[in-house]
């Protein structure tokens, strides 16, 4: 399993538009093969910090998602509404046994 954490700081006056686009991205992404979960979270201390937390079955599912039409269309629009660039971190389950 692969978990993706993508943190963005959204311009205050652009937050509603960002959330509208995010809603569309979430709905479409959840339909994709290999998507385990796809959620958007708001920072408790700064409501302009929004973080996607995603879980995917494997790298193939992540690659398919990154190349999907909805991702390729919506992500550039969302990035224009942010301050700076999105911080993206990928994780996989640690094998500790």
Named at the architecture level, the CATH assignment is 2-Layer Sandwich
Strand order of the largest sheet: 2-3-1-4
Number of DSSP strands? 4
Helix content: 25-40%
In the CATH scheme, what's the topology name? Alpha-Beta Plaits
Structural category is: alpha+beta
Q: SSE string, helix = H, strand = E? A: EHEEHHE
Q: Supply the CATH class.
A: Alpha Beta
Our count of helices gives: 3
Notable traits:
4-stranded antiparallel beta sheet, Alpha-Beta Plaits, 97 residues, alpha+beta
Task: Provide structural commentary.
The chain is α+β, with helices and mostly antiparallel strands and 97 residues long. It has one domain: Alpha-Beta Plaits (2-Layer Sandwich), CATH 3.30.70.100. Helix content is 36%, strand content 37%. It is built from 3 helices and 4 strands. It has helices at residues 15-30, 59-66, 69-79, and strands at 2-10, 35-42, 49-56, 82-92. β2 and β3 (49-56) form a beta hairpin. α1 (15-30) runs antiparallel to α3. The chain is globular. The chain starts with a strand and ends in a 5-residue tail after the last strand.
